[in-house]
Amino acid sequence: MSVWEEHYRKNQASFEEAAGRVQSGDFVGIALGVGACTPPMYEAILNRHEELTGVVIADAVQLRPNRLYDPGFMGNLLGRIDYCPAFGISTIRRIHSTLIPDFLPITAHDFGDKMAANSDVYIVMITPPNSKGYVNLGLTNFYTMETVRKGKASGKLRLAIAEVNENMPIVLGDNWMHVSEFDCFIEHNSPIPIFSRSQPTEMEKTIAGYVLDLINDGDTIQMGIGGISEAVVCGLEGKHDLGITTEMFPIGLNKLVEQGIVTNARKPRHRGVTLATICMGDQELYDYISENPSCEFYPSSYTNNPVELAQYPNLVAINMAVMMDLSGQISSEGWGHRMISGGGGQLDFMLGSYWSEGGKGVTLLSSARQQADGSLSSSILPELPPGTPVTVPRTYAQYVVTEYGVADLRNKSRRQRALALIEIAHPDLRGELRKSLQKNFYPGFSAAISNITQS
Questions:
Q1: Whether 403 contacts 206, CB under 8 Å
Q2: Residues of the chain with pLDDT under 70
């Protein structure tokens, strides 16, 4: 028996045995998305809430529901086991609304550093080891390597737990670790979460149409999560030689390659290869990227490094926002002190596209939201509500797209930006925005200024 095989077998454990090694005061970091552990691991830690104090659990992109996301349960555990997500999706909106969880502000490119600085325990899902003792991180690379390696090097990380799942696809690239880097192995085969492409609404199709006009043959593109992004992917037919350097592989990548839409042929770096750090998709996508040399994963510190991204000319970064103000401050994370998602890689790619020769940073925004009483609330506001986090500062705001058109803010003054944004706001709400513009951006001017705001 080899040294690595002996290490692997000696350190196999059950969920309960692994959870039993968590100590009071521990910060428990968990990998993102598909790479996170399954509910039995979460539950095994939560079951110890009466004997633990000061434990914090942090995860991101929560795909497997468990009691950590239950406000009724977690509200009784405050001070014993607390929750601190770094990026949330719909599965944790309810607990976010209660303000029970804390929140860890990150950008994707520094996520590994922050997890390594905090984590005493780290948990990730991996493939079974190969004949050389190497395991693959599968569908989620992101911050795992740095959390484990930097955490161990600093002495902060005491325990690295790996849930071993033979259903996890193998993805090539810098996506391998050795069994010797982990302290505990739980063999547990479970289905990999599947996601189908959503059907875009008519509004999303309209916004996507404006975005498609901004994409040229040969561009390198990045797309975030959301219905509008899916609509953009669906509308790429007719484009040629696109490259993809992104955070998440887009659903339908295989079809884009088959149709010659995506070739990665004009990229100056990683030519011929689609580059990403995570994947969430359907089985067809998982099968396509599995052991495919034209698809590679790297840590987010590389894929999302703005300096690295700036090396790609004509980089088009496409991400959604919740709201923005008339000066161009973009918020994609929350409303006031209530978190909705997180910063993720949006700022990383906005910076990279800003510095890219010919690059375009594109922010997608529905012009308004319908309230419970049927009234409309504008997504373009005179100012952000108090406490609202700014995801992208106004200095890096570029193209903003709603269903009413495109505003290019990059070289505009504050007043010019406001006028441009009002033109793509919901028509029923432009009057109020003009009034606020006149009050806040033109104080002391004569009433004649209203002619400018009305033009």
A1: yes
A2: 444-455
